[in-house]
Queue: 2 jobs
Job 1
Amino acid sequence: MSKQIIVPFGPQHPILPEPIHLDLVLEDERVVDVIPSIGYIHRGFEKLVEKREFTEYTYIAERTCGICSFIHGATYCQGIEQIMNIEVPERAEYLRVIWSEFSRLHSHLLWLGCFADSFGFENLFMGAWKTRERVLDFMEETTGGRVIQGASKIGGVRRDISSGKLDQMVKDLDSLDHEMKELTTVFLHDDSIRHRLRNVGIISREDAYHLGAVGPTARGSGVAIDLRKSGYGAYDRLNVPVVTDSCGDCYSRCAVRAKELFTSTDLIRQAVTKIPDGPVDVKVTGAPDGEYFMRAEQPRGELVHYLKGNGTKFLVRSRIRTPTLTNIPPLIKMLQGCELADVPVIVLSIDPCISCTER
Amino acid sequence: MAFFEMVKTALRTVLQKPVTILYPAQAAKKTPLSRGHVTIDESRCISCGTCQRKCPAQAIVISKEAKTWQIDRLRCVVCNSCVDTCPVKCLFMDTQYSSPVTARSVEIVVITYVKPAKPEKKDEPT
């Protein structure tokens, strides 16, 4: 047995978008074990719930993550609505789906860019972010915010989208689809990329399932779990296809996300076709008394908001379990046995969002 | 075998104009809904303190005695909560971001609203 050495990876590393620290135990160039540690950007969001009124906490819940912000806000609102038995207007539910899917597009395009950067394809990185800009422009036109939309509120949504704007949006989706098609062709069919990603960071279906992988990390290993299938919000009235891939390597996880871009645009089209007219919010009176586990599908996987109220304006407990946290044990499994040079690509392949994880 | 899939896209972008803008020399593109920074019409503010209570970032401080409305632009998260809840609609959302600063400071606005005098009570007929 050769001598083992420990190489620290992160919290500051050129490919890491956010700080996570991994101690890589190496034998020569091969990783034999990984010791992760998080805790660099803890902000105490869950404690803050005791200090802010539950209506104002919506804005704070949304700021848990800078990428899937809308889904955090909407999930929190849906949780409170369940506790208070509030019937949300149907139009608001559809609008939440539309913005959630735009969030997913924005997150996946951002990730595809960062991932291209991790294997040294700068041009593709710029291309992905150029396409993402169009999604952000749409967000800003309809909600007023590019990244933090602030469009969700307890009892509905804060803004409506006019029918003319919705029709225009569907027309624009065709050219966006075309642009994304060009982009994903490079990811899925370029041999240099395939050569770099195939058989790197493999995790089997059983391991992914037992270690609690969620989202595209699980779907890339053939575990067909997608919370949208459970039919929260307006998803029960839409046809949600679950994209899976069986190989469980970095290429599969990339392929799942690349294909999910098109399922998101398809869901937006479906939502626009089915969206009814009517109000977008209801008046909320009283305060939440009770507890609820609200689950939703984020771009990275299953998100859980646990909320508990005692009948006052201040909640007593909030717990947010984000998908990256559950994807860390599978990541460790993927890293065991890989080459040191593959570590950045594998770490990026689970789409780590550390701000979310530490809250 | 497919190599150089990116070449077509890359060559096209070489011939196109840049998609980026020279911010801040050139103003960022904004829409009518864009949330940039909060402004106040000091002649209409009744110092009720709703914006201070509803601010999730605690960026706004109202002083009834000194008749001032203060905002810490670096604390403000531009959520539009104050604009939505203001009972007299004296707060507005400007579409451009607040200008960059080199030190933390609090912006103080003196409220010029004067409560109109109550009309004199007419003597009730006996």
Job 2
Amino acid sequence: MDYAFQTRGLVKRFGPTVALAGIDLAARPGTVLAVLGPNGAGKTTAIRILATLLRPDAGEAMVGGLDVVRRAGEVRRLIGLTGQYASLDEDLTGRENLVLIARLLDLPRSRIASTADELLDRFGLSDHAGRRVSAYSGGMRRRLDLAASMVGDPRVIFLDEPTTGLDPGRREDLWRTIRSLAADGRSVLLTTQYLEEADALADDIVVIDEGHVIAMGTPAELKQSVGGGHAVVVRPADPAQTRVVTKVLMAAAGREPDRLAGGVVTVPVSGSRALTDVVLGLDAAGVDVAELSLRLPSLDEVYFALTGHHRTGDDGKETVE
Amino acid sequence: MNPWTPGARTARQIFALAGRNLTKVRRNPGLFLDTLFMPITFLLLFVYLFGGAVAGSSRDYLRYLFPGILVMTTVLAGLTATGLSINRDIKKGIFDRFRSLPIARSAPLLGSVLADSARYLVTLATLFVVSFLMGFRVETEVLAALAACGVAVVLGFALSWVTVLAGVAIKEEAIVQTIAFLGIFPLAFGTTMVAPAATMPGWLRAWIDVNPVTQAVEAVRGLLLGGPVAAPLTATLLWSAALLVVLLPASVAVYRRRV
């Protein structure tokens, strides 16, 4: 078995909508693969096919060398799934949710309670074990959902946008948890809308849009392709100077900057000189700067750099079922 | 490595999932009130408003009506509650979790229906108490009364698969609800529950004769008050078996394919 999971030419249509137009994914055992893309890109569809919840229309998907359609029963023994919407029972307590899954997975009676308690402890939920899930916060639900997918000790874990809707502090907590899963030698498929998240967690990143793979590589390679990893963001005090700022950024970065709303201009930069060049250039041009920052490019900027155009139809396209 | 045969494992999964449903019911006692509200309202309304006019006295009418109310209770609960709760479960994503686990495809559905059947027993017991207070007395023996409850639960269990099938096949809860309610009126009320068929028009009598709920009403009446039992009991059990044989595999097949 060369790959923990892989897909070849995976196609899925929902009526006239093409959710996946031939997707190739592959992850070596013990690595984290991030699938990065906007809403509606096909991320959830790909994960649902790999998790045996959907049948592909064409192409193939394998987990642990087993075809997910023909040998679905065996695949289910290898995988754990944490969906975009927490797959928990709201009326049960956190502990009861885990015990239910342990019973369904036929854990020996003697190990059901200890498994549930260990997972609650590991995911920082021991203090809330006896509370109903309906009283859990968003972050607690995500952690319980992760714990639930770990009950069967799966070798391959599918995480569909695990941090969407979490505040930044909680997100870092969850990142630590996800890293610890991969550190145990498990393989992880993670979907996300944030380059930052893919960068923080993944060994490899596949960028998909409208059912197509538009880029793939290690985080370093991908960031290189969008200019070395950072973006300079400049907002002049006087919006009329936006044009001047654009020229300065063009000269410093050697590529066309992107003008955003509110007079903000941004461009991916490479090399340690770029920021200095920008500051000197702005000073020489006599621009009064209201805001100047250096940050990781957003998904939107990655798309702009990869495709040369902005994404359209930002929201509301994700096909869940 | 695993001492359990596939059949025993499936049974364990079904019981684990039924336990989950019963815990939910225990935590939302309002669900019981839902299933009790209609039958108790009917008992009070029919017995005290019409009883005297229809049967000469409230007490005589209670004697006629109560067996039918028992059956109506499980039929209503089966047709409304079970499929709707499955429909809600599927939307909440917990069924995604179940479907991604290496468990029998039928287990979540059977678990839900089994738990609901257990719930009916509690509902029926409550109805016996209410009717006792109103003056109803079982005229046979305890075993026969228990058998009567069994008949009502078996038919409710079988009919609940109508809504389960609708619940797994249709996304919109409102449509499932409509289907359940469309089924309720002819099935639950087109029977000899409130009055003997002899007084009704011919077309209605024809329907009442084929309606499996009528057979169950007559069987329960016989079991509680004495009278012919064998023929309506056999008909009820055959109907229930036929419904299960068709609807159960169909529901599991649709659920398996549901995307």
